[in-house]
Amino acid sequence: MAAAGSGGSRADNGYGGQQARRRKGPGALATGYLPSRCPVSPPWLVIAVGLVRAYLAKGSYHSLYYSIEKPLKFFQTGALLEEYLLIAKYLPGIVPSSVVLTAFQVMSRVFLTWAVTHSVKEVQTEDSVLLFVVAWTITEIIRYSFYTFSLLNHLPYLIKWARYTLFIVLYPMGVSGELLTIYAALPFVRQSGLYSISLPNKYNFSFDYYTFLILVMISYIPIFPQLYFHMLHQRRKVLSHTEEHKKSE
């Protein structure tokens, strides 16, 4: 799923992260790696700039996907390794996300990028593609800024507020774009038999990609509320802790 934040909570700046970090720091690779990508997360900034330039050149937001197709595929696929390094290995005590839920989000993005948008060319002109791309881009720029300033022990309140507030809009926006794109792909998948395997065959196995996509859409029903309400809970926890800290000063 697309939007902000990926639910057991890992420690994070703003709600007990200091103790967790004293127990186990993020490691030299993380402290060197993240600042090199932020505060504006260069890969996703490339996509943001590409979208803006294409819009100014065309004077329309329609079919802007082609202007950022290559960097989107590259950066989103690279996120598989990146998330493993950041969350599973080098950032214990920094990333406030369930590894399982975060992995699901990354995999769902890669799936949307390759198995839907890349594979079904007809949906690439859909406005819903731009919807989730914009949501992903803004979310990632904010997220990496948050991680970097946290590692540097200098987290501006504005970035913390953005991290735990803008998801309220960005998350539904991204999920809506993903679902609408999958829905738009369904008739083309059914007509072409894309990725489907019919019986009989030597493996005695069948697979209907059309049905699989429908099941993917249904899976959003239990997962989206879990992630969304988890982030709402984190927002109350983090921002209320910040307000209390300001008052105590």
From TrEMBL:
Task: Mark the transmembrane ranges.
Answer: 94-117, 129-152, 164-189, 209-229
Catalytic reaction annotation? a very-long-chain (3R)-3-hydroxyacyl-CoA = a very-long-chain (2E)-enoyl-CoA + H2O; (3R)-hydroxyhexadecanoyl-CoA = (2E)-hexadecenoyl-CoA + H2O
Q: Which pathway?
A: Lipid metabolism; fatty acid biosynthesis
Which is a Gene Ontology cellular component entry for this protein?
Answer: endoplasmic reticulum membrane
What keywords is this UniProt entry annotated with? Endoplasmic reticulum, Fatty acid biosynthesis, Fatty acid metabolism, Lipid biosynthesis, Lipid metabolism, Lyase, Membrane, Transmembrane, Transmembrane helix
> Where does the UniProt annotation locate this protein?
Endoplasmic reticulum membrane; Membrane
How does the entry describe its membrane topology? Multi-pass membrane protein
UniProt key word Mitochondrion: no
Q: Which family does it belong to?
A: Belongs to the very long-chain fatty acids dehydratase HACD family.
Q: What is this protein called?
A: Very-long-chain (3R)-3-hydroxyacyl-CoA dehydratase
Tell me the organism's taxonomic lineage. Eukaryota, Metazoa, Chordata, Craniata, Vertebrata
